[in-house]
Amino acid sequence: MGPLSRRSLVLGSSISFFAFPKSEPEQQYHFATDEYEIRMSLEYHDNEPNRSLRFHERSTDRHFCLSLQGEENRNCVGGFTGSIAVAHYRISPHVRSESSPVLREYVRSIDQSDRVPVRPPFERVIQVQHGLASDIQVFGYPDNSSDGSNRTQEPDDAWCLFRQNLYLKDKTVPFLVVHWKHTLTRIRVLDVIPENGTWRVRQER
């Protein structure tokens, strides 16, 4: 069985892992548009062996788990080998508003190794709650070694490149373009490109 690439959107608030140490300090970006200020932070959890995909939404104290298809609290992965990344977004309007901003993404595969099937492009809406949203990205496979089965070690050379366009409200042009590289041992953002009037305030690390 080849590695599985799954991207699951978690709605609202900041997400933390149970006992998942970060592989390196968070990357932080600060952008602005005519209407919004956007802070994006990236955390990476590399090469996680035999971990369940369990999370904690801190602002609501909600606990949940995920399947590799992104389902919450259904068919949850009991053991997982691969890598995880989380992008956190904090979106603040320049002018006080009663309505929450809407964040959308359009993702397409740019390239991948031969062992990974081509995934068709997809578009999703990320609801923003209290100005916060999180995007969990997973690349790996279920690890059944904990149940006593003998699993052949998967080669670690599988990879995918993704382009993620991010949109605010009903805009037809993206305010950010993010390029991701997924491998079994690590997921990383290759670059973050401001688009269409977005300007970078600063990048922190």
Would you write up a description of this structure?
This protein has no helices and 14 strands. It has 205 residues and is mainly β. The chain has one domain (4-204). A 6-stranded antiparallel sheet has the order 1-10-7-4-3-14, with no helix packed on it. It is globular, with a radius of gyration of 17 Å. Mean pLDDT is 78; it is low at 1-19 and 147-152.
Characteristics:
single chain, 205 residues, mainly beta, 5-stranded antiparallel sheet, 0% helix, 54% strand, disordered N terminus
Draw up the topology in text.
Layout: E1 4-10, E2 15-17, E3 27-32, E4 36-48, E5 54-57, E6 62-65, E7 80-93, E8 102-112, E9 122-127, E10 132-142, E11 159-168, E12 176-183, E13 187-194, E14 199-204
Antiparallel strand pairs: 1-10, 2-5, 3-4, 3-14, 4-7, 5-6, 7-10, 8-9, 8-11, 11-12, 12-13
Low-confidence stretches: 1-19, 147-152
Q: What's the domain count?
A: 1
Distance between the termini: 37 Å
In DSSP terms, counting alpha (H) and pi (I) runs of 4 or more, how many helices? Answer: 0
Please outline the major beta sheet: 6 strands, antiparallel
Please, what is the average pLDDT?
A: 78
- Order of strands in the sheet with most strands: 1-10-7-4-3-14
Q: How large is the share of residues in beta strands?
A: over 45%
CA radius of gyration is 17 Å
Helix content: under 10%
- The total strand number stands at 14
Shape verdict: globular
Helix/strand-derived class?
Answer: mainly beta
